[in-house]
Design goal:
Elements lengths: L4 H12 L4 H28 L2 E2 L7 E2 L3 H7 L2 H32 L6 H14 L3 H11 L4 H8 L14 H11 L2 H12 L3 H9 L4 H29 L3 H6 L13 H10 L4 H26 L8
Antiparallel strand pairs: 1-2
Helix pairs in contact: 3-14, 4-8, 4-9, 4-11, 4-13, 5-9, 9-11, 11-14, 13-14
Length: about 300
């Protein structure tokens, strides 16, 4: 029996618009999490940033008072300065070390999986409380660094307790967690065709020339990816500063990261409105840095078509 025209049309509609109920069902947990744990709290914090709210009373609309107070707060600008220095120094040093070790491991040395795991370990532990406490033992007044300097007759200061050195110890801790970008660099190096190096060797190019003419240009997309990612992570650093400084921000607020000040305003001073305004300011700063990097990438990132 021939199929009717209505049946044929219905079949075409089902093919063109397939039933996606199963897909939505499997996406439902993610949608609930996104709306309930991410988008919802973000919108709530945006509203609270324009209110006076202390967790104990109903929020009272205050307009731009939190933003005005924030821009007039010397401690706020100090935390912004400390965090920016931490990012601008720590991230390039971390990526340089990660790239250098990735180039070394890419040579195919014996026991490569073991070394790769050992070098990646700091990235897993660098943000933990245990490592932050260990860092206090290393750079404390009676720590390992001063014990080493004492061998040469040098009396070292309490590095963590000195305003001139405290931030430097946290930058070293950040650089030490190079494992994650190193693994990404190593994967990028493995994608560069060997024929380029063979052709360069035939033309007489040395290793340094090969690096700047082949390795670095072809690796720029990976460098750019690591740069954007690590800048975002560095701006969000909190555990290191909180544990190493004992939650005080260090001597003269030398390690008062932006996130640490935000935490203190929210959960010590209970000024949730002010803390919400700070969180949105941090979001805008990270977005500005990311947008700037994307704009700048067109001048130095090479995509091989």
């Amino acid at each position: 029996m021939a199929r009717s025209r209505r049946d044929t049309t219905s079949s075409r509609v089902r093919v063109r618009y397939p039933d996606n109920k199963a897909a939505f069902f499997f996406l439902l947990p993610w949608l609930i999490g996104t709306l309930g744990l991410t988008l919802g709290p973000m919108l709530a914090s945006l509203y609270l940033s324009f209110t006076d709210y202390n967790l104990l009373q109903e929020p009272v609309w205050s307009g731009l008072d939190n933003i005005t107070a924030m821009f007039g707060d010397a401690r706020f600008w100090n935390s912004m300065r400390v965090t920016t220095v931490y990012v601008l120094i720590g991230v390039p040093l971390q990526l340089a070390l990660a790239l250098g070790l990735a180039l070394l491991l890419d040579k195919g040395m014996r026991g490569l999986p073991f070394y790769r795991s050992i070098f990646y370990l700091p990235s897993l532990l660098g943000g933990s409380v245990a490592i932050a406490i260990l860092w206090r033992q290393v750079f404390g007044k009676e720590g390992l660094v001063n014990a080493f300097l004492a061998v040469f007759g040098i009396e070292g200061p309490g590095w963590i307790g000195h305003p001139d050195y405290a931030l430097g110890t946290l930058i070293i801790l950040h650089v030490w967690t190079f494992g994650s970008p190193m693994v990404i660099f190593l994967a990028g190096l493995r994608q560069i065709p060997e024929m380029y190096y063979e052709a360069a060797s035939i033309d007489g190019a040395g290793r340094l020339r090969q690096f700047f003419s082949i390795t670095f240009p072809l690796l720029t997309p990976v460098i750019f990816f690591n740069l954007v990612l690590q800048i975002i992570f560095a701006f969000q650093s909190f555990t290191q500063a909180y544990v190493v400084s004992g939650g005080t921000g260090g001597p003269s607020d030398a390690t008062m990261f932006f996130t640490l000040l935000l935490y203190k305003e929210a959960f010590t001073e209970l000024d949730m409105g002010y803390a919400s305004a700070m969180s949105w300011f941090l979001l805008l700063v990270i977005a500005a840095f990311t947008a700037f990097n994307f704009w700048l990438s067109k001048y130095w990132v090479f995509y091989d078509d």
